[in-house]
Amino acid sequence: MKFTRSLTAAAVIAAASASTATHATELEVTHWWTSGGEAAAVAEFASAFNATGNTWVDGAIAGSGGVARPIIVSRIIGGDPMGATQLNHGRQAEELIEAGLLQDLTELAEAEGWADFVNPSGLLDSCTLDGKIYCVPVNIHSWEWIWLSHQAFEDAGVDVPSDWFEFVEAGPALEAAGKIPLAMGGQGWQQNGAFGVLQYGVGGVDLWRQVNVDKDAEAAAGPEMAKVFEAAAAARELAKDSNVQDWNQATNLVITGQAGGQIMGDWAQGEFQVAEQVAGEDYTCLPGLGVNEIISTGGDAFYFPKLDDPEQTAAQLELASLMISKPVQVAFNLKKGSLPIRGDIDLSAANDCMKKGLEILAAGGVVPTGDMVLTPDTQGQMEDLQTEFWSDLSMTAEEAQERFVDIISDAD
Predict the structure, then answer these.
(1) Average pLDDT over all residues of the chain
(2) What is the pTM of this model?
(3) Which end of the chain lies in a sparser environment, N or C, as judged by fewer CB atoms within 10 Å?
(4) How far apart are CA 295 and CA 20, in angstroms?
């Protein structure tokens, strides 16, 4: 396959300022944002790009990132690259970079001073390999939230919980009122994500780091981790009647008052906003399950496969520049429910939940995500374990922990 080299920073700036009619081109962009809130957010990117005279060709892939990523990677490796593609921060693109299949964005990043405003700086670090920048981070998404329906708790005659432990105590009252205590979709990535949140909330940040960063098998087998698996077993019991598949279907159970709560990342905010629900009035959000108020600084980034068309290459770099610009960062993240990656923009229009996240971010209460410290293979093994654990009620917390220890022992 024939590839062109990246444009220099000067050429990028010249291309952006030249007549858009001269350089207008179509660019296919693949992503897995297909729920109502996600579609509203990605439309902000498309609108900004189309305003340049170029054309955003939407390549949405239905399903989760776990469904979309193999398709994306296969196309790039197989010689049918898209113009731009969503991936998560972390190690997912390492092999594509090492194979020389992705655009080097270093000159653009340096020309625009990305390092001066990307906050936290680890987001840009996660786009960097061997000193070169290969992606543009577009948001900060954190998993560590539980979303609570005011209507469900009012119907059950109990107060809205202030933390995970109160939520578990309220489970019987919710069930007696005909509610599903915990909404949970039937996909491994959702169950594994919830388990990670329980690690932070019940086990604490130090234990999470010991297990996931240091790969400490002894800590993974210890009594503090046993408490996390006991909490996961309790969560599984609370979610036993949650017969939905997709995450946004589970979120809708909370929005409509059919379920008491959902452990899900802050992208759930987009669904509440589309439903015109108000944070603090219709629903409550508890970062860190209301126990350890932290957020992880994962999220989404866009990578740009190498193409053999100079005009498309120019359009790629123009799109990268737009995605990280101030106005687009504000418009996109307000719709997405995520935090911006820029530390220099005004988000006074943010709702109460987003403001909580911004306060935690400003206070430095941030942690890495599993994507940043674990290989895709290890992540896949963990998802498989959680899928089995959540679906097989006969598997005990002790048995699941033993399997988990084996995964951590072999992790790199």
Answers:
(1) 91
(2) 0.81
(3) C
(4) 40
